[in-house]
């Protein structure tokens, strides 16, 4: 029985085939398909507590009160779930990340995925990840993918993400080379709208992204690392080229980002298998077969301008946390990982 409280944990994901651009259909549907890897080491934990004595929703993120656009996005997600459940109470949301927020480390992905699951639990709503993926996607499209573990795709103009291969499908490690961890200069939503409106390359991006997505998808399913590297890097670099051609340009790279883009292929040519990608921020994420992770970590840590390296393995699906004790110490509930029954998904929260 729902008592107005829910807790969930979700992992960030990094797209191997990128999403950049909204569908003209609206509703935060994406213009291009994307495919990501959920990462075990970049987690958000969120508690949602509905209460009679609140006049507005309140949220604290990493110990700081949320306001402005951040709080509005949280309220909009809660409103969709409230409408589905006939709920009128406001909520207090407490959330923290175990990684730097807003630095292109996909905190909105894990954040909205954890929020959707925790809030739905608090309201006695659905825990069906397909429906929660749609709820999260309407807030932030990459969040749709964080409901699932392993390798996950989100089709163009598609409501929910879906997993294409489980967490243990391929023993890869994603090394996040943190170049700078301040807030990003342009938030991704605004950046996409600006790119679509002003970049002469945007149409070409929308036309070519599905082919790169297919190549990434095939390489993942067949575990062909060289093919994955080629398609993954082309997807990231085409996305950034499209933004660089906007007017004025959107430049997420810093000097160290460019130095790494130049250096990494040379390490690969000398025998170290790797594939890099960059999101809406300066950090460089480098994927490698896990047996090469320690050598690559060492080189990245020594690289001038790299502050730290976060090593991540393929991560699990979003899951509920036990409701007792502190949010920090709460253990995952194994029930959340079980396949969902018809009964669990029949109280749909789709708005
Ligand atoms: C570069 O999901 O943050 O990380 O839907 O507007 O919230 P909104 O955008 P968001 O965009 C992520 C863009 C990306 C690539 C990706 O994750 O596919």
Write up this protein.
Helices cover 36% and strands 22% of the residues. It contains nine helices and twelve strands. The strands form two sheets. Strands 1, 2, 3, 4, 5, 6, 7 and 12 form an eight-stranded mixed sheet that branches. A four-stranded antiparallel sheet has the order 9-10-8-11. Helix 1 (68-85) runs parallel beside helix 2. The two termini are 22 Å apart. Residues 15, 18-20, 28, 34, 108, 140-142, 188-189, 279-280 line the site of ligand DP6.
Would you kindly provide a brief summary of this structure?
With 351 residues, this protein is an alpha+beta fold.
Relevant terms:
351 residues, alpha+beta, Alpha-Beta Plaits, 2 domains, 8-stranded mixed sheet, binds ligand DP6
Layout of strands and helices, then pairs:
Layout: E1 5-17, E2 34-51, E3 58-61, E4 64-65, H1 68-85, E5 90-97, H2 107-122, H3 129-139, E6 151-154, E7 162-165, E8 172-178, H4 188-198, H5 202-221, H6 225-244, H7 255-269, E9 275-277, E10 284-289, H8 293-302, E11 308-312, E12 319-320, H9 342-345
Parallel strand pairs: 3-5
Antiparallel strand pairs: 1-2, 1-12, 2-5, 2-6, 3-4, 6-7, 8-10, 8-11, 9-10
Helix pairs in contact: 1-2, 1-3, 2-3, 5-6
The structure holds ligand DP6.
Residues 15, 18-20, 28, 34, 108, 140-142, 188-189, 279-280 line the site of ligand DP6.
Number of domains: 2
What integer is the average pLDDT? 92
In angstroms, what separates the terminal alpha carbons? 22 Å
Helix content class: 25-40%
Oligomer: single chain
CATH third-tier fold name of the largest domain: Ribosomal Protein S5, domain 2
Poorly predicted residue ranges = 336-351
**How many beta strands in the DSSP annotation?**
12
Derived from helix and strand composition plus strand pairing, the structural class reads: alpha+beta
Integer-rounded radius of gyration:
19 Å
Beta content: 15-25%
CATH class of the largest domain: Alpha Beta
- Report the bound ligands by name, code or SMILES: ligand DP6
Please report the number of helical segments.
Answer: 9
């Amino acid at each position: 029985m729902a008592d107005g409280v829910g807790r969930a944990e979700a992992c960030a994901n990094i797209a191997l085939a990128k999403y950049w651009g909204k569908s003209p259909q609206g509703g935060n549907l994406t213009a291009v398909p994307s495919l990501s890897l959920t990462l075990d080491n970049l987690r958000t934990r969120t508690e949602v507590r509905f209460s009679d004595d609140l006049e507005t929703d309140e949220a604290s993120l990493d110990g700081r009160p949320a306001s402005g656009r951040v709080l509005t996005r949280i309220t909009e997600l809660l409103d969709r779930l409230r409408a589905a459940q006939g709920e009128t109470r406001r909520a207090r949301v407490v959330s923290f990340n175990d990684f730097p927020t807003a630095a292109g480390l996909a905190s909105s992905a894990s954040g909205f995925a954890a929020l959707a699951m925790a809030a739905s639990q608090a309201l006695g709503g659905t825990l069906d990840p397909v429906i929660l993926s749609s709820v999260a996607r309407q807030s932030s499209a990459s969040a749709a993918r964080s409901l699932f573990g392993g390798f996950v795709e989100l089709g163009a103009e598609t409501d929910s993400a879906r997993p294409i291969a489980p967490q243990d499908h391929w023993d890869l490690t994603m090394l996040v080379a943190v170049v700078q961890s301040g807030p990003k200069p342009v938030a991704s939503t605004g950046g996409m709208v600006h790119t679509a409106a002003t970049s002469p390359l945007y149409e070409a991006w929308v036309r070519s992204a599905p082919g790169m997505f297919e190549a990434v998808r095939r390489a993942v399913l067949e575990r062909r690392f060289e093919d994955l590297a080629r398609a993954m890097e082309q997807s990231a670099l085409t996305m950034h080229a499209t933004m660089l051609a906007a007017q004025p340009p959107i430049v997420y790279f810093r000097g160290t980002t460019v130095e790494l883009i130049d250096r990494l292929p040379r390490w690969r040519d000398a025998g170290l298998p790797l594939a890099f990608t960059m999101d809406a921020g300066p950090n460089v994420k480098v994927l490698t077969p896990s047996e090469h992770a320690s050598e690559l970590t060492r080189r990245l840590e020594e690289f001038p301008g790299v502050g730290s390296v976060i090593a991540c393995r393929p991560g699990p699906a979003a899951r509920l946390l036990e409701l007792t004790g502190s949010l920090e110490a709460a253990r995952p509930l194994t029930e959340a990982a079980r396949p969902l029954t018809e009964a669990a998904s029949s109280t749909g929260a789709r708005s």
